[in-house]
Amino acid sequence: MSAIAGTRRVLSGMRPTGPLHLGNFHGALRNWVELQYQYECYFFIADWHALTTGYDDTTRLQEYIRDVLIDWLAAGLNPGVATLFIQSHVPEHAELHLLLSMITPLGWLERVPTYKDQQAELKEKDLATYGFLGYPVLQSADILLYRPAFVPVGEDQASHVEVTREIARRFNHIYGREPDFEAKAERAVKSLGGRNSTAYRQLRRKFQEGGETAALERAQALVQSNNRITVADRERLLGYLEGSGVSILPEPQVLLTAAPKVPGLDGRKMSKSYANTIGLREDPQAVAQKLRAMKTDPARARRTDPGDPEKCPVWDLHKIYSDEAVRSWVNEGCRSAGIGCLECKQPLIDKIVEEVTAMRRRGQEFEEHPELIRDIVAEGDEKAREAARQTLEDVRRAMHLRAE
Ligand code: TRP
Ligand code: SF4
Questions:
Q1: Where are the domains of the chain?
Q2: Among 195, 245, 265, 334, which is most exposed with the fewest C-beta within 10 angstroms?
Q3: Global pTM?
Q4: What CATH fold (topology level) applies to the domain 3-176+252-260+369-398?
């Protein structure tokens, strides 16, 4: 068990579609790096998810997985505290996906906004596939397998976490009922033993009567840390806290990342599909060159034309990278045509080149020693499988695929 066992769990994943860029960094990764020191974190490469849209050409999949892993490490994910693994190395994801697919109404999936949006956006691909429709079911399996409290994702993924919660609720509703639940739960409370039984009852009352979530969390911790009770009793006790029945798959909460707007070089959102990105470990000279050519306020056709930072994507980068002093220098200089756009970009170029250079330095060790990555992943896979195996045992038992 890790030193932070008992702390709440966080889980998130990324599809391996190529090297990460500054949009991925500020949109998600930077946040993960902080979370890893506050929670027990599981982060994984969603290679099966990459197949849902990229099934027609998988030749570069291994390369992309490696790119993303090195980007993660370069950005500061620490395999000493966070569990880093690959989805397809943990076949439990596939089994839970299958089982959840049995109880997921088609209508829920057709209604997920990304379903129609992505089909419209990627017109050149045939996305009228079984796998693509099931994308949110696979994502639900990814999440529920680890019973996390929080799933940090961007706005675009919030609807998937919502489906996950609905599927969990439905699962618990169908399979979490026992005819004599109350009696069994009461017996389980007794089996906690003297002081713990009393504490459990008090905390349960505080939560149920006073709505104190802190009491709920303490009671959950009390149950989780007790290793004398059976797995079935543990589930009963957790379910009994909230009143409903056995909560086999707890509903996770979305943790929306407060992400700054990261503009691409053409002024649209930075995105691989727009080819307007700056790579996390891109060559510094190429980065400087790209930034020099980056789009600015079109009103400043000539050096003497005043501009408006609010209409300039470069300004969005200043909001991320520059301090107050630089920002007011930009604001005044732009509006009065006191500075040129290249001048305005220089402090940004310095900052971003510095950042990219640091990432390259941290990534280089892993580039040179691929065996380091193999070891990190092997260890992460093993830890993830252990957690996943436990959940699946509970799921199989609840569905009567195994004897009690
Ligand atoms: N769908 C997510 C994305 O495209 C990746 C993902 C797959 C994920 N499974 C997940 C994210 C589970 C969070 C939790 O970004
Ligand atoms: Fe944009 Fe700076 Fe040029 Fe103004 S001076 S248009 S903020 S790049």
A1: 3-176+252-260+369-398, 181-242, 281-367
A2: 195
A3: 0.86
A4: Rossmann fold (3.40.50)
